[in-house]
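Priority: medium. Attachment 1 of 2:
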């Protein structure tokens, strides 16, 4: 008998050609996530993904709960195809729950050559559990624990625990995108939702020293580290934005400055995305949240790029976004007080219904192309990894 972790992943969208790509990517991502724990193996067998945690189940699960594509992990005992061994494993797992419990056995017989069918297995295992563990009662309708038994080709697997995974798709099954990452609450959550859909991300941050402090950049770097825990890595473009912002202040009427600033961000992001093969932009915009996020504002900002602009928070309330930020570990960083480049330059009365022709006219005095080129030329790319890079065990 040995301890293994069974990986359960979503079946939807796994038809035909997608399936091998999904599974191959998931196995790779699980291996990458566990690369810092030597001796752990991830392998496939008969259409199942297994992890041999080499005795490090708790440490492995702590890291694994952030791997997208997984619905649940089941710490399991692998036994020979013998009833006594299965019962012994079940007794041990149930006894570990250490309290009187209402339970139910759910057997599945994938290997039809095994002499007992699932009904008979349920009954037999249930009876043995009742005899051997004190305080148990059977409850078929609202059990506190479900003792699962899977009979497969060479072995049986017994488990009681469900450790939830984050769901979604494995990062890497989609083309990559570029996340506009401020130090605020919304954009890290937007990035998380896209990674959850399998999209590998790079992030881009616009900063304006000396108006913005090194600590505001540090915030974004810390957010990148947290997102890298979920996505495996997060390369970050740091764009010098001071010249653009001062030029906007000088040449653009105050009420349109937010719209124009956003357009400049989109333009620079678009340029870098095209240069480096990123297929979409991602932002934390949510309809109606602030002046620059009315539908009219989005319409006046959007035309500077032909790339799809993904806005996963578009229909969420602030309270929902905050709750998600707390869950994924970005909230405490996002609420640190340091100003970012936008809050500093916010006009008193930003236009809530800017018209595209007015915005274009307001931009006429701005050396747009020169500013974009200069910003792109000054951009630095830094790596953020989930953990120090190590050689993965073969
Ligand atoms: P957030 O909480 O993400 O900062 P917000 O509610 O403050 O969002 P805005 O300031 O209007 O909204 O920004 C809208 C979006 O523009 C952000 O979600 C982010 O994607 C992008 N953005 C804003 N400022 C920056 C910046 N300095 N660098 C990179 N992207 C930015
Ligand atoms: Mg912001």
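Attachment 2 of 2:
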């Amino acid at each position: 008998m040995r301890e293994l972790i069974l990986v359960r992943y979503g079946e939807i969208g796994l038809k035909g050609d997608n399936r091998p790509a999904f599974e191959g990517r998931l196995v790779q991502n699980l291996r990458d996530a566990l690369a810092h724990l030597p001796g752990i193996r991830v392998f496939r067998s008969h259409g199942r993904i297994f992890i041999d945690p080499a005795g490090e189940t708790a440490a492995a699960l702590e890291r694994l709960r952030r791997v997208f594509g997984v619905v649940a992990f089941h710490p399991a005992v692998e036994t020979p195809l013998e009833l006594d061994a299965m019962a012994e494993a079940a007794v041990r797992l149930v006894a570990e729950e250490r309290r009187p419990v209402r339970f139910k056995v759910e057997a599945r017989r994938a290997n039809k050559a095994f002499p007992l069918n699932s009904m008979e297995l349920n009954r037999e295992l249930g009876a043995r559990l009742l005899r051997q563990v004190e305080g148990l009662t059977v409850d078929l309708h609202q059990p506190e624990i479900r003792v699962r038994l899977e009979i497969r080709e060479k072995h049986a697997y017994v488990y009681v625990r469900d450790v939830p995974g984050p769901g979604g798709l494995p990062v890497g099954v989609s083309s990559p995108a570029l996340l506009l990452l401020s130090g605020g609450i919304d954009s890290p959550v937007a990035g998380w939702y896209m990674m959850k859909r399998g999209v590998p991300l790079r992030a881009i941050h616009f900063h304006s020293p000396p108006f913005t402090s090194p600590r505001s950049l540090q915030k974004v770097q810390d957010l990148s580290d947290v997102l890298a825990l979920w996505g495996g890595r997060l390369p970050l473009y740091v764009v010098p934005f001071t010249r653009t912002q001062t030029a906007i202040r000088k040449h653009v009427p105050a009420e349109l400055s937010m719209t124009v600033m956003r357009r400049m961000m989109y333009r620079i992001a678009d340029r870098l995305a095209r240069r480096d093969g990123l297929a979409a932009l991602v932002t934390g915009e949510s309809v109606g949240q602030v002046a620059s996020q009315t539908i009219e504002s989005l319409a006046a900002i959007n035309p500077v790029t032909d790339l799809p602009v993904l806005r996963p928070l578009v229909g969420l309330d602030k309270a929902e976004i905050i709750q998600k930020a707390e869950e994924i570990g970005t909230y405490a960083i996002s609420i640190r007080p340091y100003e970012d480049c936008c809050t500093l330059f916010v006009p008193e009365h930003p236009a809530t219904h800017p018209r595209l022709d007015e915005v274009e006219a307001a931009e006429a005095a701005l050396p747009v192309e020169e500013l974009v080129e200069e910003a792109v030329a000054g951009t630095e790319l830094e790596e953020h990894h989930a953990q120090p890079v190590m050689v993965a065990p073969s």
